[in-house]
Queue: 2 jobs
Job 1
Amino acid sequence: MTETTSGPARGSRSKGSKNKGLRIERVHTTPGVHPYDEVVWERRDVVMTNWRDGSVNFEQRGVEFPDFWSVNAVNIVTSKYFRGAVGSPTREASLKQLIDRVVGTYRKSGEANGYFASPADAEIFDHELTYALLHQVFSFNSPVWFNVGTKQPQQVSACFILSVDDSMESILDWYKEEGMIFKGGSGAGLNLSRIRSSKELLSSGGNASGPVSFMRGADASAGTIKSGGATRRAAKMVVLDVDHPDVEAFIETKVKEEEKVRALRDAGFDMDLGGDDITSVQYQNANNSVRVNDTFMKAVESGSQFGLRSRMTGEPIEEIDAKSLFRKMAEAAWACADPGIQYDDTINHWHTSPETGRITASNPCSEYMHLDNSSCNLASLNLMKFLEDDDAGNQRFDAERFAKVVELVITAMDISICFADFPTQKIGETTRAFRQLGIGYANLGALLMATGHAYDSDGGRALAGAITSLMTGTSYKRSAELAGVVGPYDGYARNADAHNRVMKQHSDANAIAKRVDDLDSPVWAAATEAWQDVLRLGEKSGFRNAQASVLAPTGTIGLMMDCDTTGVEPDLALVKFKKLVGGGSMQIVNNTVPKALKRLGYQPEQVEAIVAHIAEHGNVIDAPGLKLEHYEVFDCAMGERSISPMGHVRMMAAAQPFLSGAISKTVNMSESATVEEIEEIYFEGWKLGLKALAIYRDNCKVGQPLSAKKKEEKAAEQAEPEVEKVVEYRPVRKRLPKGRPGITTSFTVGGAEGYMTANSYPDDGLGEVFLKMSKQGSTLAGMMDAFSIAVSVGLQYGVPLETYVSKFTNMRFEPAGMTDDPDVRMAQSIVDYIFRRLALDFLPFETRSALGIHSAEERQRHLETGSYEASEDDVDVEGLAQSAPRRLEAPKATTTAAQSETSAPKEAHSSTELVEIQLGLNADAPLCFSCGTKMRRAGSCYLCEGCGSTSGCS
């Protein structure tokens, strides 16, 4: 059972305070009218299936939602956030019940702790919060929806930072605390730099194990807990300081494991996502980051030496070339995306509580950075809700209303700490003493496009910076107002000078920021006024919160708010995948595209023609009437006109000076990116004042060459075997009879379609294979014809099928990717798919199980019972003759290759898959373990559009 701590609010109203609580203003609501009475409600049936095998993952009928909520938002909220056993009378069945459960708890706690000036103010708070949630103006993070107002511990935080010292007791506590956080579906990060290195001695005289060795135990624990989870992995971050003597071993951990993956794949082991043998690979459950300081980065810049320091004495024990170590970091990131980089001096330069302790680590997604053994609860605003047309038909960002909503949300978030439970006593004590909050936003990419700004442009960065500055300035303003009502955070008195210094730094950054156009200038003006209030009120009353803002991934809650883009990310693509009421789906051009074209001055008939072009081609290239200088407005994360890596870095730099914490974002790079480009990005991130940075090079997880080792293997293959030939053996060909049973299977692999006919001996297994690809006469079709003849002849000469299977499965080349086969979800190539399918159809269970090949039913059984084999009650006696093929009805008519191109199109089930089809790309994203849909990136994490599952913060 999770250990929890609770109690009254600390830092409550100060003695002798004359304030009677906050006065709450109405922004959206009308006196005497409840927000629920202003919308149209309707009943819907939520039935969520795994499209690969048709199984029902979740079903609840007759749920009640506003008519303007999308199918996806309704599905996510019903399946993820409604509490109570499905089918029971206690199960929530209306959005009203969910919102009332949460808002009622916040109001009750706010009244009990003296936040409101009167009962009338409490009611306004209740109505305004209800309206904002009902109309998808903002959302709390997922733990709030899971836990608040229920009988279980009311954990409201999604982000945690732990600590570990150089003792076995502390290390074992780390394992336990991390495990309990994972069990609750959250993630944690920590810095291992206090653990002495493997180059130092123990008090007993032996060598220390070093932090890398202890990472193995923590990784195994996380992997075990992950395997038992249903919706998210065990998310974790491991940080090591750049001056730790074991930093090189830390950098190389995942590179070596990726080499292991390649070698085991080539040997025939099942190393696919979710495969049995992937568990032998270590260090895969964490994001790794190296914490660099200014001394190191300056040494890189000058090409000088840098000292690695003893953990026990602080003295240098080894001198290394800084540029060489920096190169190793970039090479490792090029090979496997780890480690990321965190800029220690920049992080602590913006630290509001340095007298209590340094900031040493972050949460798994890298946006929350504060004291060890602390937590942060998140909430995100939907920026598109504040884009309006003025009386003249011109667009404007409603800065005044945005600021009012920020005040409301910050008030609610701070109230939540009064009643919240925490996974450990240490985390509870630190969080109550410093009251860290993480307000942020989503839909920035959609907002920029809708306003006619390119994501990588001065105008786009200016608007993003202005909104971020207004958000954080307003948050600290309200925090100072709260301090005047219920007192500053407990740690403020000790850290007052530092906290006020950081507020001045934010204000100064706001003052010098570049103003570009009529959209961002009014927002900057509002932000300037907010920061002036922050300095004035903070000097008088202090602050209620040590931290106010971060930019989180906004995964599941982004879907709940019907956001087109997550966090600070640009749009994924111009064409979206949309679910329809009553079932089915359709592809639509983003709603932001017409708004952008209107903003850019195009007439309605021009807009219609451009949108039609995008719908057909998936991009704006050669769109009729679209000016070349406007192409960049429609650049996206993927596609022919994708945003450059430095474009992502510059956007992060525009927002970072106005955030308390950091930004969850991964800079995507093409497969052809070089190590030098990664070095440049890591270096520019430091120069531009970022706090953390991570990159991902497309296909790096499977495309990393084995250099010298591979050459040695190739040389060994070419060498003559030293075996004396004693007996010459000539096999005899056994031809198939004229009439023979067979199976014809249609398949799609990475968009390539084809048919496989597998004929067998009447009583003795597979005898021949015929492969037909679409586009008759193409090189691929010709090669597959020749390949199938060669395999067929080999089978008839006695080559065992399992030999082919062991040699050809896991072979990787294009086309590769998603398939339409529920038993083989992903294939590394057409050859990989073919022999997995043949193994499932013709090999005995024991043989293919040893090769790591199982059907969807068997994998599901393994998840439920721990065994792939059916129990005696489940055994199908007739199906035990597995050497005979499946018997399918013969097709009524032969399908030609030309017909197959139109009759079996690849079907998309998410925006990521749609982009792959339209642009011919292969997105490196995992499949959702819950519903089988291909996920998409959300910050540093992944998000499933099908069921809302995430791999990190929500």
Job 2
Amino acid sequence: MADANSDPVQSLDALVVGLGFGGIYSLHKLRNELGLDAVAIDKAGGVGGTWYWNRYPGALSDSESFVYQYSFDRDLYAQTPWKTKFVTQPEILEYLDGVVDRYDLRPHTRLETAMTRAAFDDTTGRWTVETDRGVTYSVRFLVTGLGLLSATNVPDIAGIDTFAGRLAHTGAWPEDLDLTGKRVAVIGNGSTGGQVIPAIAPVVKHLTSFMRTPQYSVPAGNREHTPQELQELVDNFEANWNQVRESSLAMGFVESTAETFAVSDEEREAVFEAAWNHGGGFRFMFETFGDIATDPEANEAAASFIRRKIAQIVKDPETARRLTPTDLYAKRPLCDSGLYETFNRDNVSIERIDENPIERIVPEGILTADGVLHELDVIILATGFDAVDGNYRRTEIRGRDDVLLADHWADGPTSYLGMATTGFPNMFMILGPNGPFTNLPPSIEVQVEWISDTIGRLAAQPGAWLEVRKDIEHDWTETCADIADATLFPKAASWIFGANIPGKRRTVMFYLGGLKEYRGILAAEAAQDFPGFALHAPAFVTA
């Protein structure tokens, strides 16, 4: 879609890059509430961000539907009665598309338009943003919602370009891919792999899961809400969302403070069993006991419960062994819709590539180190993303003194509050590095509201810009690292620390202090006139 304005250089107050949850809400805040001249661009052919691209079978939120949506408009919430505990990708995409029309944002969106370069001019205090559509924007404020999980990770496997069948990444799913009766491989078994495997197993001829590291996963327990439950969610809107904002994870339940070994063995087993039957990965880790993520013995108690469940579910002992993790239960909590049961099917098998590596991909399929050729029609890469900073590094973004953002982050991505980084004034990131590790829509709302309020205050000062102080950015990074180190999460090889990308430096990527504490920090920063920032103005601007 070409820009409606043919002028190759367009001057705006603000440009929003990305049209997922964050970009859509930002455009609404900037245009409809602040009255700024703002436009949003996205490389996709439609709105939705992550949910536009991740159309793979089984794609499902793993935050419960009643908190996986916007809360800024009570009427919108009341008119969105998602009927299941977790919500499917098509429903989320339809919802976000409807939000764009509800707030009359579509005329101010430019789809199929990618940012190719952005540069800040110290003399004018403006950003110049170039696109692949030949249109350049000159803007005071640059708001980037490039996506926490959107820069696809394609593994470097020998011969991958020689495969004669279909090769598909779950993060860029082709709409015309029909898996019926096909011989299919799924490489990867994180959250996405755990969703796609049970979804496609009933229709493929044979499915082989190529798994490097087994994962701890619990049932999602997805089900339809009763009409009474749906009405209660609407009636309890304020109380529910207040609880979300005052919690750590923003998942819609009260996190436990009970200690794992403060109860008897029988009571502990009953708590785990009830959580297993209710469903939800975050509930299992954080609603059962309060020390699973911090105490190794408590963590092992939860992990051993899941291992016992795998042994009970999976009938073949060798398959069960291959599916059973032995490391810490300290990655992003997963849930699934019958993952372990799927491996009881005659048409599903598993290869542990840490034990029997992929030698190479050939035109006919995948050749493993034992000399076996796995003949395939389709290879699905459920290999995740270069998370958090991936899209920022893949784009030329230059700040003050022509510094490239990728160079600024040479030792790992840094920010203050997950929204701003030193040397890049008036650039505000949504879900940037070291933002809160929570259910995302509530964190997105908190960040977008803080960003738009800040832009509103700056807009009243012609030419002014805010830039994070270097020492403050350093201190925030240290704070995030210290909080993370008080948990078990850094001890596990996880994408939340960049461990899934070969050669990527493992570093802290999230603020694990919780949404309540994070909101308090944001409120104090704004109330005290931004002590973490320096306020600048171009030389030509008079007081």
